[in-house]
Amino acid sequence: MPPALMNPLMPPPPPPSVSVSAPPELEGSDDVSGRSVTQKRRFGDLRGLQWRVDLGVLPSESSTSIDDLRRVTADCRRRYANLRRRLLVEPHIPKDGSNSPDLTMDNPLSQNPDSTWSRFFRNAELERMVDQDLSRLYPEHGNYFQTPGCQGILRRILLLWCLRHPECGYRQGMHELLAPLLYVLQVDVERLSEVRKLYEDIFTDKFDGLLYQENDLSYSFDFRKSQDLLEDEIGSHGNAKVKSLDELDPALQTIVLLSDAYGAEGELGIVLSEKFMEHDAYCMFDALMSGVRGSVAMADFFSSFPVAGSQTGLPPVIEASTALYHLLCLVDSSLYSHLLDLGVEPQYFSLRWLRVLFGREFSLDNLLIIWDEIFASDNSKVEKSVDDNIDWGLRILHSPRGAFIAAMAVAMLLHLRSSLLATENPTTCLQRLLNFPENINIKKLLEKAKSLQARALSVDISSPSPLIIGYHLQSKSVMTRSQTLPSETVSPKTPVNLLTDSYWEEKWRVAHEAEELKQDGIEQQIPTRKKGWTEKVKHTLRRAGSDPPPSRIKNGKKESKVVRRNILEALHKALGPEEEAEQMDCHEILCKQENISEAAEGVQQNDNSKGDNSYSSDDRCPSGNTGIEESSSVYSDSTSPPNEANYHEITSQGSSVASNLYLDECDETADTSLSDPPLPVSDHPESNIPQMSGCNNNDPGNSATHPKEKKQNKFQWFWKFGRNTVEGISGKVGAASEPTKSTSSCSNQSNSQPPVSSTTSEHFTSVSSKGDSVDQNVMGTLKNIGQSMLDHIQVIESVFQQDRNQGVSVENLSKNILVGKGQVTAMAALKELRKISNILSEM
Amino acid sequence: MVLVLALGDLHIPHRAPDLPAKFKSMLVPGKIQHIICTGNLSIKEVHDYLKTLCPDLHITRGEYDEDTRYPETKTLTIGQFKLGLCHGHQVIPWGDLDSLAMLQRQLDVDILVTGHTHQFTAYKHEGGVVINPGSATGAYSSITYDVNPSFVLMDIDGLRVVVYVYELIDGEVKVDKIDFKKTASIHTAH
């Protein structure tokens, strides 16, 4: 029996009279769970009791009488007591009273695994393991969880559960699933005593005498805890004064009846009892782990073998992780493909999230709210007709609860979206995933998860499992060709509907829906946005057209172009006449249109740098793809074998140069067509920055920054020379360094340029990623960007000056002249850059 | 609950090559909390082996021990029991209960463990116990050649001690058990 613990960290129980009638507001809106409203209210304020109902320990039907509840409770406790008696071995005490007949078997050194002593030693070993984890359980709530009483309860429960389920055994993390369960029971009990105190105050004069009388007669020899005593008081009182009980709040009445020591099953049936907290916690834990009559069993998440009947043949937790990515892919394909690009497989982080049901990511108070929602979701399998020929792929998505868990994880991913998209390598990405921010709006997250839950459930109907396996196997080789994955995984899964034949239109629809889901957030971020709706359409449009570029090559360019055009035309209709200028651009070359809108966005939404970056990341590449014929090489240069690299690079550079010409034009047109008086000059840099970051995000090989490209424009006629001399350029160096490298190689002098330029591009990336993550303080960020640009320009300049000094010894005169020219133009570009940065820093 | 292994008179390598294989397989680390050894190991390697079973090792000096730093007698307290340890060649006549009882009183212990005779004996005497675990290797003694390998494991729990006797007879390990309860009166008498 643990001592009565008053935990200062515990949230103070709200005054009973208020909270009894008002259920927690979070529970109000979910209609996924099958429980009726009255049922919810029934134990709304007693979380532990509510969980016991939700987990299936207590009957959930609202018609269940109090007596039935008490009977079930008593049965559970009896079962636990029996189990404890049977499994917890005391080798010193002979079990059946007589000495064990075979001492050869039952002695401390016995090697027989069935002997009492070896069982005892096994238990002791298990206990040591459990203790190791328990001693580190919730150090911040140590004054409750680290007390010997609590540790003892936790240890016994875990030990018994593991002994009861030897196939599962003890795994790290189980204790963190159990601890909150015990905690809520403790809170409930404390709340009960709170209510009782209040109740006592009202009726104190009436049964004071009764109390002392009873004390004198029967309790004097056995002065039990005041808790039990009070229970008896109320019990006797409740029986005696039924009339006054009826006058009470019905919820309060329930509490009293639940804790009436003279009700059904007597003291054993007291539903809220500190004495039987251990028993109750075990029953809850068991129900949670084995997933009573449902599909989500936490124990599965700890096993490393596929469950019997699993379609995928994967361990359940991996399967659940796959489901998680599957859902993410549908909701936010750009984040999904970004994670795939980095090679971040879902189990890297979801193992930790799922096994303890997010226990490590949130504080205990928030965790309880999340668990409220998880448990409130029905765990039973969704009824679907068996003969509709659908394989049961992802088990976790079969029940509302599992779907909610997956949706919660996805909501967490979306919460981290911007910072994840800004990551460059898997390590930092995982770092962000595994260090979930602590101060978050839990309510918002849950709302998001709820909306995703419905989606997850609907998705499951149309998800054939073989493809998911295929996805999983492919995701193993994610590092090599991750770009093609989205198209392969998504296309079969998206529900078949109106636009049957065109894959890209489906894709667009999915992205569009995802966008709409996010609308709230976006609009909150940008309240002053001018053309919110059209911008959004454009976002989705661009994403639709651009999401999986490599597969476009596979599917054939023409088709995609046609679809794109269709979508664009749809956009025209949607845009309406008031945006003539932009429509004009739309009729022009496609990439132009995009860049204009890009620039327009850059102007209009200074504060939306996050959105811009992420979208432009998609935007940048397809503009090359669709607008220019050979643009496929932009992508192929990162994957092509080294010996082909030379040719590819040159063609890609050519194409990017061409597209840059367009870009420049676009920028100009954007400047003219969109009159934005406050900051006319700043249009230019701003449209540059998102593009830069976009390039860096999407394709490291294509990380040419815009100013560089400009320079590239002017260097265009150098290629003839460069082609002969550029050799053995690895794709890794990146397009950014290529222009400078080719100039250097054609001039035969500079060795130091390529590294410098590549570092500058890296710097740009870091800067832009910085700009990515900071939303509110965009001005400061821009200032930073300008500052760093200035720095880099100085670096480049100094390099060029060095080159000029070295360039004296070059033998070829004509080339020397060319170099000089190149340097002059480069210097001009740099000057421009500096101007830009000056403007930026002025802002 | 504490498990205490008591053994002695191994006489390795002079009279026996090693512990019997069956004993060796039974004695595994992790179970035993203390080892008390009456002496005559006789070399350091045996001492090291015992250390691997349990780091808490107590040894008194037998007449054949190489290591002369072992004490003649040793007392230690485990739980509620006070244990005395002596090889026993100093107590004459060898293995005589009265002489051993004298030593028990001298050391003021509840359980006296001695060796030297290579014969397992256990007496309840004057509210205490006098135990001789015998020879763990079955080495011959100066008294007899007919020796069965044996050792003793004591399970001390509160006021109760259960003595398990392991004896190797004709290649089979035979286990016996002796219960002993220390009465509270004896405890208060001290």
UniProtKB/TrEMBL annotation, chain A:
Residues 1-17 have a biased composition (Pro residues). It comes from the Eukaryota. InterPro entries: Rab-GAP-TBC_dom, Rab-GAP_TBC_sf. GO terms for molecular function: GTPase activator activity. Residues 1-39, 539-560, 601-652, 669-710, 733-775 are annotated as: Disordered. Residues 631-640, 742-761 have a biased composition (Low complexity). Residues 603-616, 688-705, 762-775 have a biased composition (Polar residues). Residues 41-378 form the Rab-GAP TBC domain. It holds the Pfam family RabGAP-TBC. It comes from Arachis hypogaea (Peanut). This is Rab-GAP TBC domain-containing protein. The lineage of its organism: Eukaryota, Viridiplantae, Streptophyta, Embryophyta, Tracheophyta.
UniProtKB/TrEMBL annotation, chain B:
Pfam families: Metallophos_2. Keywords: Protein transport, Transport. GO terms for biological process: protein transport; retrograde transport, endosome to Golgi. The keyword Chaperone does not apply. GO terms for cellular component: cytoplasmic vesicle; cytosol; retromer complex. Residues 4-157 form the Calcineurin-like phosphoesterase domain. Gene3D superfamilies: 3.60.21.10. The keyword Protein transport applies. Belongs to the VPS29 family. This is Vacuolar protein sorting-associated protein 29. It comes from Arachis hypogaea (Peanut).
